[in-house]
Amino acid sequence: MSTEQSPDQILDLRGVKCPFNFVKTKLKLETMESGQTLQVVLDPGEPVANVPRSARDEGHQILSVSERADGLYNVLLRKSGA
């Protein structure tokens, strides 16, 4: 049994190129309440390198970055209170 909390929202961005994947992540976070969590599904390479960094630069918390069995990545973010 997993002890991880389920994210409040999930955003699947596989196949979305930079910088559009961060733009979509930012727009989704803007619709959420402070403290809520967002799981973003990203491709390897630039997307998984850039989206967490950009989200952190915006003041959001990176809770985890994990590689999935299918080679994609799950990035769990917590929306900042700003």
TrEMBL record:
InterPro entries: TusA-like, TusA-like_sf. Residues 10-79 form the UPF0033 domain. Gene3D superfamilies: TusA-like domain (3.30.110.40). It holds the Pfam family TusA. It comes from the Bacteria. CDD domains: SirA_YedF_YeeD. Belongs to the sulfur carrier protein TusA family. This is UPF0033 domain-containing protein.
